[in-house]
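User: Can you recover a sequence for this backbone? Please restate the input before giving your answer.

Assistant: Of course. Working from this structure:
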């Protein structure tokens, strides 16, 4: 314990240098923490929300846009497709399930999604309160949406046109909350779910049309897209080609598009990783220089310790422990700073409403951060410690 205390005192005997080394090392570790947290949480979000969805069918346009809007609800959809075309998909021999998705309205940036109850069953979500809808204009709230909107059972509200703030309010179409889902960790947590017929009811105006026009309007109904599950993995070879060449719709494979997305993000993460490496290398060199200088400056102290009976290994241990103190402090500060950076990113981009990024987390890979901190500190201290270990008492007393 005395050795630990003495090493701590030595570390702060030069406070300016200690703070500089601590800052450099902490910044590098914070960058690594940030990368680990974001990549881990993104991977989990993608894996969780894509589970069981083999292909997304929607309007022609960007396949990536179709996946981001239909699965993760973080983009606008490319358009709508005829309801009849989506219904035909259920008759395809390779298709096991089709879940319709209708978008267009929101409430304070939380999306109102018209769908079927199969969408809730798909993610194995459970009700915390109430029941599922039984008729149009009834909604079931995701856990996050209910909490942030402050809505409870029986509350009513009107949606606004568009998927963001500032849209026109549909004042004549009132939704009623009949159920609230328990937290599931899936995309459902951030959605307001209702029957597909609710979306049609909000946007269709029957007051100014006769029965014939009303029938035409019903026959021309549209949905935004459909989530499709195959009966067999072999369908992945031919079904998307069939949709893209034989229909007016497009099929986007989530696994393929997410792989493309991650590859595009890879350049940015590589740059940040290189930046973190430069910071750690600079911090290591700074620690090495500081400890090497400390050996020269503390010759009198080291000589006194040796004369009082301290063996060479204890003198070397002082320098190693000083470096370990620095590494431990940097690890704590780096992890906290990385967690803060992740939370700040989620707050700035509102990712906590889309991909659930930003909450405090400790994935298994995060243990790499304290390991790196202690490793860099120890490597930087080895040569100074060996120098202190090998110097004789006579040389120390002579100041050589």
């Amino acid at each position: 314990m005395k050795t630990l205390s003495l090493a701590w005192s030595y570390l702060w005997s030069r406070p300016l240098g200690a703070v500089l080394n601590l800052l450099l090392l902490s910044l590098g570790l914070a960058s690594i923490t940030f990368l680990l947290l974001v990549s881990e949480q993104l991977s989990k979000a993608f894996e969780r929300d894509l589970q069981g969805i083999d292909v997304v069918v929607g309007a022609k346009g960007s396949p990536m846009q179709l996946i981001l809007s239909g699965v993760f609800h973080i983009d606008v959809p490319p358009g709508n497709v005829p309801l009849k075309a989506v219904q035909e998909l259920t008759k395809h021999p390779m298709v096991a399930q089709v879940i319709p998705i209708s978008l267009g309205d929101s409430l304070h940036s939380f999306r109102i999604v018209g769908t079927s109850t199969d969408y809730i069953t798909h993610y194995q979500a459970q009700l915390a309160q109430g029941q599922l809808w039984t008729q149009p204009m009834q909604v079931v709230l995701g856990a996050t949406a209910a909490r942030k909107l402050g809505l409870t059972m029986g509350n009513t509200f009107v949606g606004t046109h568009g998927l963001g703030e500032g849209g026109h309010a549909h004042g004549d179409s009132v939704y009623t909350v009949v159920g609230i889902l328990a937290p599931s960790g899936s995309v459902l947590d951030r959605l307001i779910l209702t029957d597909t017929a609710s979306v049609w009811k909000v946007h269709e105006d029957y007051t100014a049309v006769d029965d014939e026009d009303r029938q035409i309007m019903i026959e021309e109904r549209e949905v935004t897209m459909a989530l499709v599950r195959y009966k067999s993995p072999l369908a992945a070879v031919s079904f998307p080609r069939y949709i893209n060449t034989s229909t007016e719709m497009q099929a986007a494979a989530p696994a393929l598009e997410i792989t493309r997305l991650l590859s595009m993000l890879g350049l940015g993460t590589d740059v940040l990783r290189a930046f973190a490496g430069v910071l750690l290398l600079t911090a290591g060199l700074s620690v090495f220089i500081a400890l090497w200088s400390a050996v020269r400056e503390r010759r009198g102290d080291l000589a006194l310790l040796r004369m009082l009976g301290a063996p060479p290994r204890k003198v070397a241990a002082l320098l190693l422990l000083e470096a370990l103190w620095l590494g431990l402090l940097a690890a704590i500060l780096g992890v906290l700073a990385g967690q803060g950076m992740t939370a700040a990113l989620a707050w700035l981009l509102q990712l906590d409403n889309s991909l659930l990024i930003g909450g405090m987390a400790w994935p298994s890979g995060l243990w790499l951060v304290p390991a790196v901190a202690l490793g860099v500190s120890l490597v930087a201290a080895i040569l100074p410690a060996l120098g202190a270990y090998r110097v004789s008492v006579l040389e120390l007393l002579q100041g050589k």
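That completes the design. The chain has 14 helices and twelve strands.
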